[in-house]
Amino acid sequence: MGKTETPDLPERRGQHDGQLWDSVKKTAFVLGTGLLTFAAFRNTLTWHLQMFWGASGDFWQAHWGKLHNYFDGNELALFGLGSAIIPSLSFWTYNAVLIFIDLTGKPNFFTRYRIQLGKNDPVDPAKLRHAAITVLCNQVFISFPMVLLMYPFMKWRGNPCGTELPTFHWVLLELTVFVLVEEILFYYSHRLFHHPIIYKHVHKKHHEWTAPVGVVSLYAHPLEHIV
């Protein structure tokens, strides 16, 4: 039997090598196509975004110039407006809509999209009021002073609110860097706050809402809010 099977070994080895080579070629084809597609998509996306930025750049620059002139170039006022006032107004505008829906259950169209159906339906008004006051206090007495304290460091770093808006590529770079920094720091700080020693004194407050609503995204102990 051994003698009859011996001649088949080179043939089988050749078939195996051929299959391996075919797999390598297919893999190279898939990877190569994927890289080319990604490069083409990136270049196309960048081109379109540059066109959009170029088309709208004059519009935004003109309005920024008007705002800058309105405040007479007062960089502290512009810095506070962009870093504290506008984000806070945006937060409360969106959450005012959500609070109305949480308290009234209307319109019914939105309630079907609750992540936890049957929870906070309707929400406890007293509990919600307490959460809203806590969030507002965190913003007024912690966030705003922190923004003001950051202003001298921003001045030391450079001109934080100059007359010229940043370039398109600089905006993309800053978005990329700071999204990564924020995600990494938030993840590890959150894990730290779940340490038993810290959790019961600090982070437990945030988890008082086992079925959270929009406004409690900033409902936290003052120390946690600072971090």
UniProtKB/TrEMBL annotation:
Keyword field contains tRNA-binding: no
Record GO cellular component, one term: membrane
Annotated keywords: Membrane, Transmembrane, Transmembrane helix
Occurrences of domain Fatty acid hydroxylase (ranges): 176-226
Pfam family, one: FA_hydroxylase
Name listed for the protein in its UniProt record: Fatty acid hydroxylase domain-containing protein
Coiled coil: none
Gene Ontology annotations of biological process type: lipid biosynthetic process
GO MF annotation terms: iron ion binding; oxidoreductase activity
Location relative to the cell: Membrane
Segments traversing the membrane: 76-101, 131-153, 168-188
